[in-house]
Amino acid sequence: MSKGEFLRLMDKIAEVAPGTLSGVENVQSLTSWDSMKMLEFIMLAASKFGLTISPSSVVRAKTVNDLITLLGDHVTK
């Protein structure tokens, strides 16, 4: 999946207008980012890529780009 495709999915999860996220955003500054949104990200990683990501890893992520890093080679630039 390209980074752009992933960011479009994250726009939906974060409940922001399409094309809003670029990757540099601090996830805590996203008004809708909460524990349910973290679970949505974890479920996205599981369903799209077969990855198991721990909640603590998501909590440690500071930016959207940090979330992308958790997905490894599954998201390309």
Compile the SSE list and pairings.
Blueprint: H1 3-14, H2 35-49, H3 55-60, H4 64-70
Portion in strands: under 5%
Radius of gyration, taken over Cα atoms and rounded to an integer in Å: 11 Å
Number of domains: 1
Question: What letter string, H or E per element, gives the SSE order?
Answer: HHHH
* Helical percentage: 40-55%
CATH architecture: Orthogonal Bundle
Major sheet: none
Low-pLDDT windows of residues: none
| Mean pLDDT across every amino acid position | 95
CATH C-level class is: Mainly Alpha
How far is the N terminus from the C terminus? 9 Å
CATH topology: Non-ribosomal Peptide Synthetase Peptidyl Carrier Protein, Chain A
Query: What is the name of the CATH superfamily?
Result: ACP-like
Overall, the morphology is globular
Query: From the helix content, strand content and strand pairing, which structural class follows?
Result: mainly alpha
Number of strands: 0
